[in-house]
Amino acid sequence: MNFFIKNCKLDKEKTDCIVVPVFDLCELSHSACYLDKCSNGYITSLIKLGDIQGKIGDTLILYKVPKIFSKRILLVGCGKKDEINKVRFKKIFKNTINILKKLSIKNIIYSFSELNINNIYWMTRVAVLSIKEFLYKVMKINNTNVDNINIDYIILDISKKHDLFIAKIALKHALAIDYAITSAKNLSNLPPNICNPLYLSSKAKELAEKYKNNIVVEVIDIKKMKELGMNAYVAVGDGAKNKPFMSVIKYSGNNIINNKTIAFVGKGLTFDSGGISIKPSFNMHEMKYDMCGAAAVYGILIMAAELNLPLKIIGILSGCENMPGGYAFRPGDVLTTMSGKTVEILNTDAEGRLVLCDSLTYLERFSPNVVIDIATLTGACVTALGESVSGLFSNNQELANQLLHASEETDDKIWSLPLFEEYQKKIISNIADFSNVGQGQAGAITAACFLSKFTEKYNWAHLDIAGTAWKSGKNGGSTGRPVELLCQFLLNQSNYIYS
Description:
Residues 347-354 form the Cytosol aminopeptidase domain. By secondary structure, the protein is of the alpha/beta class. 35% of the residues lie in helices and 21% in strands.
């Protein structure tokens, strides 16, 4: 399916369907008014019958409209004109997709450029990403799923010619971000017998092949980890048949705008049984999603390479499995991390922070200016913030503000939580520098406090996506979050102008 930006003469376009907005109380949009005028009031005459009120969720298909070349016109209710925001805009597009995918339609024109969601850049980008999101399907492993979406292309009608340039930039960004989100989703949705740490490393190597002018990849195996002193990372993977692999993806764009190095670390537990502190069996199959942080980093690097962002980026996929076994680490063990700091293990199901702490120390060799780790880290974050909001922790307020700004721009919600000294005391151990869990309260915060002990040499932020990375149930799967948020963060670092 292809997307195009065009300034259309709507009555003359030979297409399967033109989609136009209708506002509350049957107020016609500019595009609907134009088509109504061209058809000598035909649309108004049908609206007077009361089949559509203009509320969000309303739709009405018109066939063979007089003097209009398009086979159909789809009127879509958009609610009150001055209350449209990105959330409602996405809902409007979801309604259109639910209608259109049931029809034999190969090409569509959306004439929505007058809808007020900031500017034409965001209107275009949100439209494309919404359509892509609602058409996404989880791939079946046996490749027998039938795709009943027959759409060949979608045209976004831009009513003002001077907006075409910005709209085309928005389309380019949207397609790259969608590629990143879809790639992250597809990777996360794979079963753990396919997507293991070695598989993760192979996907990283594929990036180096595809983007050979921008990306170099180094894979650190368990032997090298031991040589580096990454004992915490190694301990987590020791009980598993599938041994750990850490993929280091080095991206460098053209015409780099500054000497800053931005690093992302993704927790890549391709399966987490909890180890000796084994998890309950209920929904344990969903622990294949414990690598959504690594999948997010994978997607972010794809977007950077697709747009050739003028940045230096390091991406680490911290691939590992946490399994019980004769070589598994135990509650009561004391591990010496790569940093030299010691950790008392109180719970082997608090393993992600052990993998991440050595990955964060490894990053010091690149002298990064900014480090962001992304992890499905704690059930406590789900308890605190639910399934709509990711947790944000940072040792640098400017970095936190930049992430919060990107969150507001993309509507990928995050909420800042504290790292107060009172919480830091909860992980003090009497036989090691720290314990790997706190004392039963504020679990998301004490986990972030633990990570903060290994990030003192750079500006750091931690995103706990345990509640937002996937949805449960038969029709669930990876959400692809927080890929768009972090892509937007990188676009902002690249000084892109959207209007």
